[in-house]
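Blackboard transcription, Thursday session:
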Amino acid sequence: MKQVFWSLAALLSHWRKHPASLVTLLMGLSIATALWSGVQALNTQARNSYNQAAAIFTQGNSQNIIAQQGGYFNQDLFIRLRRSGAKVSPIIEGRIYLQKKELKIIGVDPITTPKNLSVELVHSLKSSFDLIDKAGKAFISPETLQGLGSKSDDRLKTDRGILLPPLQPLSSVPPGVIITDIGIAQNTLARAGKLSRLVVDQRNNLNSEQVSRLTNNSLRLVAPDDSNDLTRLTDSFHLNLTAFGMLAFVVGFFIVNASVGLAFEQRLPTLRTLRALGAPAYLLVFGMLIEIAAFTLIAGLIGVTGGYLIAQELLPNVAASLEGLYGAQISSRLALDKNWFFSAFAMAGSGALLANTAGLVKTLRLPVLNVAKPIAWREINHGYLRRQALLAFLAIVIAVLTYSLGKNLLSGFAFMACGLLGTAMLLPFILALLLLVGESQSQQPLLRWLFADGRQEIPGLSLALMALLLTLSANIGIGGMVTGFRETFLAWLDERLIAEIYYETATADDARKIEAWAQSDREIDAILPVWRAKTLIENQPVELMGMTFHDTYIRHFPLLSSKENVWENLHSNDSILISEQLARRLNINIDDVLNLPTGDKDWRVTIAGIFPDYGNPKGQIRIDHDRLALHFTDASRTHYSLRVAARSTGSVMARMKAVHGEKIIRIVDQEEVKKISIGIFEKTFMITGALNTLMLIVSAVALFTSLLTLSNLRLRQVAPVWAIGVSRQILAAIELARILIFAAGVALVAIPLGVFITWGLVTIINVIAFGWRLPMHIYPMHWLMVFITSLLTALLASLVPVIQLARSKPIDLLKGFTDAR
Amino acid sequence: MTIAHTLKIEEDGEILRIQDLTKSYETPQGSLLVLNKISLAIQSRTTIALMGESGSGKSTLLHLIGALDDPDTGSILIDGMEITQLKESEKAALRRNKIGFVFQQFNLIASLTVAENLAFQARLADRLDPTWLAELTHRLGLTQIASRYPEQLSGGQQQRVAVGRALAVKPRLLLADEPTGNLDEKTGDSVLALTLELVEETGCAFLMATHSARLAARLQRQCRLETGVLTCP
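(Written on the board underneath:)
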């Protein structure tokens, strides 16, 4: 025990002498853990919210009964079904505005709510008989209540001036939702006697024919709404986030590895002395393991705190983009579980252990009588470069294999990761080659030394430079993809959103009335119904939308590829347009034939065109309006768009609200839709931008800490040159030049690697994850910015060590002659 | 006095004059006086052994003479030029032009080959004489290993490279701090013999710190540094 204690004391004394190395190591491990756990916190938060929402809204595998043609329906139909013995429960859903925030209101009937819904919320509702009190209660999640600036039992008015029942916080209510008694909800939504759907009790054996017969074809039985299957839909989003988190962890891990490697070199004499004094190798390894455990504990705590803060900062944007893209409501208050907490420590521990593995193995094999051997840097360098080359080769082979064999998102990411790591591992080679060329071309002795010494410095700096390379290339690659996507998306929006006004009515009947009214309005040029239906193709939900044979589509609707006279074909034949992502999923192309399930039989259609549908996680098919009505009699007939003169948009909307306010659920103009779409887009990539910036900071820290740690070791290299007659200022300038050469070399490698990332994201990841392929764009100005960023990062990181050298006292340099090794 | 003036090589006469040189170090226990009003003059072609116990201040004196460190008081004149007041860049110029330094730990530049190490200081000073360098390389027995790197050499070979590097610039003053301290007796003897031979040929002054009375006896004068005081018989 005493042996362990004293050996550990001797090992730990190293950190007392080198506090900067200790700080570096802990900082690297903490940052890596923080970035990883931050991303994981976001994923956990989102998944918890999905589960919460799914538990309430999809009601497990319960079926729903909805209006034959979409929208609301009369509650008489519910009464009719109940009287016939069907175990169904009514629900009304809609949107309200409270304190200028949009919320979803759900009205439920506590008495008929099916018993098989074993959800805490339902029990709360059922046991809370207050719900059918006069005032009733409105259940809301605590964070949504807080977000409204309200407290328990507050009563708020909607934007329409309707007073809600006292608000009651309930943690099982999903964020952004208010659940209340169905009667209160109907009044709040101004839909007295109307319902959105009926939830069918799982013990019920209702079939479609029975529902149609009992409701005179007004209602139909549908499978659980797949749009609520958020976990599946958002998988790609979360995998992307995880991939970024992993990349950030790798960058952070590189710092740890660099710090541990340098610390091991610094501590080698101590280890040798301890071995020479009789400390067994296993004892030293045991001591080092205790040390790793301590690091894990400290860095884990800092990392978990940092991760929490990062997640807290990014959560609003993640929540906004998930809501915009998938309609998912994510709680804005981070509620994290112990699994997340311990997994962060596990990552910190495994990172520390992995970084120390080489040191532990070396310690076990350390020859005791090796003290007097000169430091064979060339041997080390050659060995290092050989190992790197081997690892790079392996990574590239794995990349090629995953590219040719795998066709899913995971293999896509594996391909990208191996390609990235393989190139990163080649970096020391490339830099050594560049320096060798520089050396051979230099006649001036100091210049030759600059290049020659640079090669010697590569092993010590390579991990930090690799971290910088990954960051810069990720910046170029992801930046290129995002900018390209933005350009494509904006151009696509301009083409796609041609109509000036978009609206949704409460019922199909309402829609017909508004349509009739609109035909007589002089300011309205065209009424474009956008009826919708759903079907399943290969067990995946597909949205069908109708299109009239109108100039608006013919002139503007963007198509990626199409057959000749596509619009005439669509109008007069059994032809359809199919979204790019669906076409890829089904592996079909122009002129291919598809059997489209219409409910009772399949409809044989030909693909006339493929259109881009960015941002839509589901497959979509566009059909001629009349054919949609013919083949999909259950199509929802509540969505329309209007063509009006731009200057008349406001007045037409105002008139519609005044005349048909009650009939309209939502009405927005083109600008508003664009604003919302662009907002979602920006928020989605704001997360990417934030993580990118964090990674750049991490890389700068990595480089800074490596240079700082190396600066002590560098004295031995610099001191003889100083003694021979080169001033400290010139030496400092040379050191700076060397770092800038490294940074420039890294940036030069980062450019093609960044283009590789853009290519991978555009042609592999996006296509698999989202189903769309963007045009590949390259941005040389962005490369220039990254090049400058690389130089600035290196300049900033090297400033302290370089100034230290320029201002070093002669006595510090003279130490270089006495600190042998 | 300008640098250009100081660079004028004087073939003979006094090369080094030290007057009342004092140096102390701050330690946790207080100020430690290492050199106490030391004075010394060295003519060209003179070889002096500087002896004394470990910590007696031999290295400190060499560092001060070599313009690697600054004294507390006193003056150091090299070729008649006061060096204690020089700026950093002027000291650097003085070191590369007039002083050759051989260290106990060799302190070769690890990233350069033997040939590059040998020529390095002379190239820096822009005073490379290829004929002299070739002769030096040959005389020091380094021709066969000119393309090797320091880590591939034995201690004796490394020290011969260090001597060659210092002499390639044809310095006015060669300073050596325990040059044979890391070598065995035979190798140490041969390195010193070669050094003295080359010193004689270049006409520079040679000041060597050593513990070895045997090696010191091979130099013209033997000075002893004790409790900060220098005694030269």
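Lecturer's comment: Residues 1-58+239-373 of chain A form one domain.
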